Amino acid sequence: MPSTLDPELRRALAERVRYCHEMGFYDFYRREPRVLDVAEVESVAAEAVSPSSLLASSSILQPELREEMSARKSAVVRTIAEENVFETPKLEYAVSDSAAALKLIREDLGDCTRCKLHKGRTKIVFGVGDPHAELMFVGEGPGADEDAQGEPFVGRAGQLLNNMIKAMGLRREDVYIANVVKCRPPGNRTPEPDECDTCSPFLMRQIAAIKPKVVVALGATAAKNLLAMNSSLGELRGRFYDFKPAGARADSSWSGARLAVTYHPAYLLRDPRQKGEAWKDLQMVMKYLGIEPPKKAAE
Ligand code: URA
Question: I need a surface site. Which of 20, 88, 217, 291 has the fewest CB within 10 A?
């Protein structure tokens, strides 16, 4: 069982709870969800917002009618609680091939204008690497080089990340690399919460499509957004977290990833003394993945 909620699920849950409170329901029971197909979701959603179910809370109705409506309302809310309507099924859920699923997510992202970051971007930086990678790195957001080339981690921080990957005995092409936000924040500022909230569902879907064994969060922005925790990087490092995006909960072919947190390569460029600590984090990941470091890095 994941020890944290991913932001996408947390938002959907908050919305659902608010809706239920508006309907007068305050007691909730936990039950394992299953993913609805599109038709089922539409029918439950239509029922939930139909004038009859809304009227059921009105005091102008005859008592018998109110009782009947109230029973109907309970049935609808029970259905909602029992089924997984936290997540609208996405097109890629029907696709088992990771590369095809990533393509569908990229198409859905389109020429994105969902948040203000689109105004200053040159290229959307979707992600790069092996769609079947066991290991995935998640950074904060594109910088100037990434914005120009449309690929994550190609600047100075990217060179260091490449070296870190090499030290692990892997090649850049063996892993998958993405960011919390896909457009460059102006002046390389930290992405704002609304920008992360808008963009991170696409990252969650990428992770769910790739089904990595390990996700490494590079820096505080990635760690906090993936884990929906507000602790400092120092507190978050040094252990694994169970991680499975909300949209993948019903995917029995993947039990989820382990998530590790380490320093962002740009931070390591500013403070190289922390490289040893970052290497410890990567060694924890290598041990879990059964990767032997190349001779030179091990010496
Ligand atoms: N920093 C990031 O967080 N991501 C990039 O892609 C490049 C630099």
Answer: 88
pTM for the predicted model, two decimal places:
0.74
In terms of domains, do 97 and 12 share one? no
Q: How far is the CA of 256 from the centre of ligand 1 (A)?
A: 24
What is the DSSP pairing of strand 241-243 with strand 257-262? antiparallel
Q: CA-CA distance, 136 to 128, in Å (whole number)?
A: 10
What pLDDT is attached to residue 150? Answer: 98
Pocket test for ligand 1, best of 124, 136, 160, 179 (most atoms within 8 A of CB): 179
Separation of alpha carbons 193 and 72, rounded Å: 39
The CA distance from 60 to 58, in Å, is 6
Give me the domain span that covers residue 76.
7-83
pLDDT in tens, 131-157: 999 999 999 999 999 999 999 999 999
Q: What are phi and psi of 290, to 5 degrees?
A: 70, 35
